[in-house]
Amino acid sequence: MSSESRLLLASASPRRRELLEQIGVATQRVHCQVDEQVMPGELPAAYVERVTRDKVLAGVAASPAGAVVLAADTAVVLDEQILGKPRDREHAAQMLTALSGREHQVMTAVAVACGERLELRLVTTQVRFRGLSAAEIDAYWVSGEPADKAGAYGIQGLGAVFVAHINGSYSAVVGLPLLETAAILEGFGISCWQPC
Known about the structure:
- The chain is of the alpha/beta class.
- The chain has six helices and seven strands; from the N terminus they run βαβαββαββαβαα.
- The protein has helices at residues 14-22, 44-61, 89-99, 134-143, 170-174, 178-187, and strands at 7-9, 27-29, 69-78, 81-83, 103-114, 117-129, 163-167.
- Strands 1, 2, 3, 4, 5, 6 and 7 form a seven-stranded mixed β-sheet that branches.
- The model has no long low-confidence stretch (mean pLDDT 94).
């Protein structure tokens, strides 16, 4: 595999594609669907790893032989509970109120596969929110940003003003841990900083 090979991305997330572009990795999306329901008794770390593994394997199955495929999944976790994307305004307000003034975890797994070979890493980042008022939460919902975000916030957008402290990988909170991703990709013969 040449150092300028195109990576297939088993994700519809524009943020993941942007993060890969940020480190100079060209991607092409591969379409695949997996079950993202939490299994009974499944712990958050196991959930994120399972969904990521399922995504990358589905991506490999939908790709030409020999293709290198990357997938990732992110979960916002508070008190061992996964906070998914909000169903509606009220659900978003409940999540943001629960996160207000507290520390939570953002777990992101990244997997790269080619044929039978698969490598996966899980990165956990601690994020602390300052206290949020009901008026702020309402105004944030009206902005439209929380509607499609795990935990009802985006650290890379307007939600950045809620974050008092972060311990770990910022890019993992956005959706892809770039340090770990670059290391895995190098092992598959895909280098960062490729010429455009």
